[in-house]
Amino acid sequence: MAGIDFNPYAYDIHEDPYPTYRELRAHAPVYRNDALGFWALSRYDDVLAAFKDPLTFSNAQGVSLERSSMGDPSAVASFLAMDPPRHDQLRTLVSRGFTPRRVAELEPEISALTVHYVAGFEAAGSCDIIQDFAARLPMDVVSKLLGVPPADRDTLRHWADAVVHREEGRAEIPVSAMQASGQLLGYFRELVTQRRQRRGDDLPSALLDAEIDGARLEDREVIAFLFLMIIAGNETTTKLIGNALYWLWQHPRERERVRRDPTLIPNWIEETLRYDGSTQMLARAVTRDVELHGQRLRADDRLLLLIGAANRDERVFENADTFDVLRDTSQHLAFGKGTHFCMGAALARLEARVALTAIQARLPDYTIDAEKLVRVHSPNVRGFASMPITFTPRSQPVGAPPGARQPIRRNPLEGGRR
What we know:
18 helices; single chain; 3-stranded antiparallel beta sheet; 418 residues; 14 strands
């Protein structure tokens, strides 16, 4: 471990963590940071094994490095801060709204939103592709599911951005992040109160009517899931779209491949997830003493699973530091594995595919202003807050107006046929 300094809060790590990851995999596969009080796993096999062993590596204290200041971390992280069996019960209930069929039914809505946003700037020849598009599309989709009206969505997006932001080199949660968390919880508390009085055609209403073993969910459980959705269902997809655009721009050969063969767009997405995924690490709490690579981890130790490092492990991915849209990415860990595999993976992939297909078709020659790029600063989430681009303007924008959108199906948890 000597000579390796891995601080997940350091801004230089946010700029480029991969040289440090390489050192960790080679020389400190079980890394200890005494100052910040955590262990970290960086090799693919170790991260995968930890994902598959929730009894030893628990989610009960949440998935951020910072231990939650709340007595019950699931109050903001929902089932992401639970272990089986309660995790499995709640996840099974909620996952009914995210089956492959129901996710596929969202494509017309996502396509209409995409066309609407791109039509708003494609004649200008420039835009901030994050602020004007990539940050808006996922927020609109998840807000529609949650019953958040359009007038409130920008406010919620700013609060969500603030929740994941961290100050340089500082391990504590910033006051601004705690305030934003409180504002989001307050917003969803009011939304759930409204739905208690009058149901709507949205996920909160469906959750209020749902049962687990004959018992209804409490308001706090519904609120916690809405909080999780507005963070996990928005932030990571926004960053995935931005990262994909950035790395294809950086690699002209791969860009030409995608230009010549648009069927490679899903490959482009998967290689982005592997090469520079928006979720870089997830925390676990060790539940029992365990030895890994000669290091003794003790019960209640904090452990980071470095997904970004595992996805660049040369033992699994040949030429791992090369961005290659033709590679086999089937083993990447961007969405986790096992019990806690990301429930929203199919939706994230769908949103990214629709978004990137539109950019390729409408703005094929986009160029990024690298001098004006602004990164997000978060231990968990990697991506851009701002990405100004220029492109050849289109004088004849096309697309349906927002009023022409097809509505999302009536009830995301409703059974039977439409």
